Description:
heterotrimer, A: mainly alpha, MetI-like fold, 13 helices, disordered C terminus, B: mainly alpha, 14 helices, elongated
Amino acid sequence: MLAFIIRRIGQSILVLLIVGLVAFSMFNFVGDPIDNMLGQERTAEDIERLRIQLGLDQPFPVQYFKFLQEAVQGNFGVSYRQGRPVAEILLERAPATLELAAVSGILAIIFGIALGVFTAIRRNGVLANIVMSASLIGVSLPTFLIGILLIYVFSVELGWLPSFGRGDVVDLGWWRTGFLTESGLKALILPSITLGLYQMTLIMRLVRSEMLEVLRQDYIRFARARGLKDRAVNFRHALKNTMVPVITVIGLQLGAIIAFAIITETVFQWPGVGLLFINAIQFVDIPVMAAYLMLISVMFVGINLAVDILYFFIDPRLRADRAGGH
Amino acid sequence: MSEIPVPVRPKSRLRIALESDVFFSFRRSPVAVASAVVVLILVLSAVFAPLIATSNPFDPASLNLMNGFTPPMQPNAFTGETFLLGTDDQGRDVYSTILYGMRISLFVGAAAVAFAMVLGITLGLISGYVGGWTETIIMRTADVQLTFPSILVAMLIFGIAKGVTPVEYRDQMAIWVLILAIGLSDWVQFARVVRGATLVEKNKEYVQAARLIGRTPGAIMLRHILPNVLSPVLVIATISLALAIIAEATLSFLGVGAPPTQPSLGTLIRIGQGFLFSGEWWILFFPAVTLLALALSVNLLGDWLRDALNPRLR
Amino acid sequence: MVEPVLSLRNLSVEIPTRHGIVKPVDGVSYDIGAGEILGVVGESGAGKSMAGNAVIGLLNPPAHIAAGEIWLKGSRIDNLTGEAMRRLRGKEIGMVFQDPLTSLNPLLRIGDQLVETMLTHLDISQSDAEKRAVSALEEVGIPGAAERVNSYPHEFSGGMRQRVVIALALCAEPSLIIADEPTTALDVSVQAQIIALLRRLCRERGTAVMLITHDMGVIAEATDRMAVMYAGRLAELGPVRDVLSHPQHPYTHGLMASTPLASAGKSRLHQIPGAMPRLDSVPEGCAFNPRCPYTTEKCRQAPAPRPESTSAACWYPLAREKAS
């Protein structure tokens, strides 16, 4: 098991190195960093001095290594647009995105699994079929349209909930939270539904199809042949086996939620890192784009790693196979 | 050309499927038929947009600012003109902007999928057939890319490409950059399926035989292996088309896609969102419904196709 | 006369398909008494498993019992509700499946699976159930049962897993066991052990067994009576010794002649010409008539008579005079 984890960590680091290379290349080849940093009035000496100062005269691998060194320390350079260190801007914006993603993720997992199990067990039921058809619309419906629809109904027509922003936040010193005020919680409702809905339908459809697959297995037939109650067969025997493949995807969906937050944040003008990233693309603010890429890669890779390790605790077969080798 | 006897190649799965159950299940599925009709109508009206639109909304000469904000089916207060779906802030006929916008949406979606398909099939065939380091590099790249949601990959590629393009060409190039970005974000699925099938097929006797009689690897891949993977590729392509249309709309809505000078449905929705609170709902509503109909019907078609070509799930 | 544990009366199972109704089981009748092992043989698709599934109430829709009756210990069970049938499963009817590698839930310890089954059917405490789980494993010959209850299925070999499956099927002491090809997926060396185990346990407890198999060796070794099925119908029914040595139905005769064990000593194996018909195209009259060497016009028109306790479903049964 230890060997497996070490190998997975090795792979994760490799992925991060590749992403780092992409980010580094963006810095160096997309636009001229010297153009970006110096104004119109510049002399050849200025350029030369900056080149040496930035280390641009050194060979590629050295530059790349330096870039990684800086990145690990959280130094991603200065935003072209805002003129402030990127790390500072990201830190300021991260709580908004993380709170939104956490609420959406929990909603998506709870409702996704519950509805998936329901539609699998009542495969031919009327209600289950309605849910399935609705979910297909949910998958086809672009996230931003869901957001606009919710804004139209609950903000424009009913006037119940705010259509943009985070509401009032409480500053905990290192973290600004919207969980502690009424307006903060109210502001969270529409964006988290918007963000969670798509993931919920995905999880639901996946749980359903995996569960139907499991329900066809011999051990489920054998469990039925032993006269076990439907509840025991469905939940004790089938659901547990369903969760093994589903957990990977749920893990990946959590990562996707952070990425999809870009769309939701734009619709609701939610002041998180996603909105920051979109603005960065619009204004070609390379340091912010690169830093966002690195940040989200670390999250994704971390989540993937966590999911793999979680596998061991669910599936005894894996535990035994790996442990057997050592 | 002399025919060299080669062991009989098994009928491709696509052929078998088309001959037996697919058309049967198509006729039996009202959802599939309805989706196909909707897709057909939308595609035709996009193709013939110049003929059926009331005006070219992007020809400044045909615009009359006085016509701005005319509600659907009501005469304008100043000019007395009536518009089926109303007009936007600049007096453009919403019906015509939708037709032209759909053209761009469909073009970008289809071109991106075609690009992804060609790229994915090529890389999949090569990595399956050649193996070794080539395969490792291609499939590792695919794995890394698959770690990230494709919309994020597309945004990033769009951002980079935008950075590389000189400022004065950015709007002009935006559509092509968009196709590149969405296409590059979507090739992995094709490559995986094709590679898997190639690995299976390349050891079959008819491929061995073709190799023995001296067919080139390129010919073997195209003539012998490719036909066997067409049906899964077709399913993926259909589903990818729905996803690509949504991806394009999303990027354009976010302001990192089609520019206002060449608005797609997503751009129109972005413009319309600004008037949601002031009551001009039609500027947003009709493009949104069109996008929804398009994405949903392509998606339903893909869903049905997948079930029909994959008998295991029936 | 002692009442049989299981009694099938003219049982028919139907599956509606796009091309019409097919009958995987067509008018089958037989009894199994307490402590008796009935071997059911036939080619794949002959309807032997389908009959077993019908008895335990686990037909996959749209397959359903279309006609006939199933009696278990004097009460009719084919018309029970789902819940009443569930109570019978495991409690009165146990089932052993073909592949022990897939019949056990991979994520649950085998002890938990045993305890769960017993608690569902027996009025005993958790700790009693745990004790009985250990003794159930001992009974099926699993060494170190006290520790092995905490193992997961993948930690057992195929043969050991089939023993666990048998323990699970028997743990609530059912009066009937349906064993559907219980040895087919096992190594040859293990097959005999499993058959011997099944036989011993059922003899000891007086459990009736429906042993579904296509293996004539298993039939000869383990069963008391045998039923031969062909295209969903019963071809021949009788005591094993009689049927094996002097088959009356031409199909049984052909089947024997084409089995290595039964035809030992002969230089070449016999082949029955043709193949069993697909269930959607069973011929008129006797289902075997196109392949039978003795077919007459009568065989092509009238369905063969249904076998009673010891005869063959044939208009012209092969004579038994060789035996007497």
